[in-house]
Amino acid sequence: MTDGTESTDHGDVTACEVEREPDPSDSLRTFGAVVQALREHAGFSRADFGDLVRFSKHTVESVELGRRMPDESFVELAEEALGNTGALRKSAKFLTRGEAGLAAWFRRWARLEKIAVSLCTYECRLVPGLLQSEGYMRALCEEDIPPLSDDALEATVRARLERQSLLRERPNTTFDFVVEEAVFMRFLGGVEVTRDLLGHVVETVAARNITLQIMPANSEHHACLAGPLQLLETPDGSWRGYSEGQENGRLIADSQEVSRLHMRYARLRSQALSPKDSVGLLEQMRGAL
């Protein structure tokens, strides 16, 4: 993510921002296009320019096409060779490969999470990312289709563990979770992974600012049958919503739509087990393994 985005998202998120989040390589392609334009304006071929910046013609091509993150030395030498305008040095500060483990459509929401004063999550598919144990994360990654490479799997796990720092670094933010009982009944990764997961969740929700409620599988009423949802409150008191499906996600800024999600979440909390009973159920499930 680029500098400055996190400090302004909470003040100017509008309905138009539910559009496509930039792909991780967008900043690289933009930087590469600037390099190419300046090079061509200066009259250098890629080979000639490569000699000036002490990189091969193929490296120059890869940078210009957005396929490679430029080295610091490339930026400095390219800046000198192309007129010292400052354009390359300044734009290089905003280069990003994206965030491994966080889908492109989730990144804007992830930035909002970092400044939120309240976060509410309902999940019916899997354990919410902020509550996942490392073993559970790995089991999820190993089930991904198409399969991840070993490097991609490790990068994904590291990124997701890093996201959990929110729970430790924001003790004044409230985190509320409602999770379907069936999610914890699915032994993803096997019995040992599930036992560790249940213990990890019980330990995590012991913090004063974190609340977990289990939606019992035998409930006769359910306010969120339309699917999982997330809500957050920003420091200025405004609320945003987020919904996600396969290969897509949507940040919701429309006040009427967010209000409907609020009503559903509030009703769902009244239908779920109390936090104390929810922890008791998880401990009972863990003891039975």
Shape: elongated
Q: What is the percentage of strand-forming residues?
A: 5-15%
Low-confidence stretches: 1-24
Radius of gyration: 23 Å
> What about the largest sheet?
6 strands, mixed
- Written as H for each helix and E for each strand, in order along the chain, the element string is HHHHHHHEHHHEHHEEEEHH
Helix content: 40-55%
Describe, in plain words, how this protein is organized in 3D.
By secondary structure, the protein is an alpha/beta fold. It has helices spanning 5-12, 26-42, 46-53, 57-64, 72-81, 87-92, 107-113, 134-142, 150-163, 165-169, 181-185, 191-204, 255-271, 275-287, and strands at residues 118-123, 174-180, 210-215, 229-233, 239-245, 248-252. Strands 3-2-1-4-5-6 form a 6-stranded mixed β-sheet, with helices on both faces. β5 (239-245) and β6 form a beta hairpin. The chain is elongated and about 75 Å long. The protein starts with a helix and ends with a helix. The model is unreliable at 1-24 (pLDDT under 50).
Task: Annotate the secondary structure layout.
Blueprint: H1 5-12, H2 26-42, H3 46-53, H4 57-64, H5 72-81, H6 87-92, H7 107-113, E1 118-123, H8 134-142, H9 150-163, H10 165-169, E2 174-180, H11 181-185, H12 191-204, E3 210-215, E4 229-233, E5 239-245, E6 248-252, H13 255-271, H14 275-287
Parallel strand pairs: 1-2, 2-3
Antiparallel strand pairs: 1-4, 4-5, 5-6
Question: What's this, in brief?
Answer:
The chain is an alpha/beta fold and 289 residues long. The protein has 14 helices and six strands. The chain has helices spanning 5-12, 26-42, 46-53, 57-64, 72-81, 87-92, 107-113, 134-142, 150-163, 165-169, 181-185, 191-204, 255-271, 275-287, and strands at 118-123, 174-180, 210-215, 229-233, 239-245, 248-252.
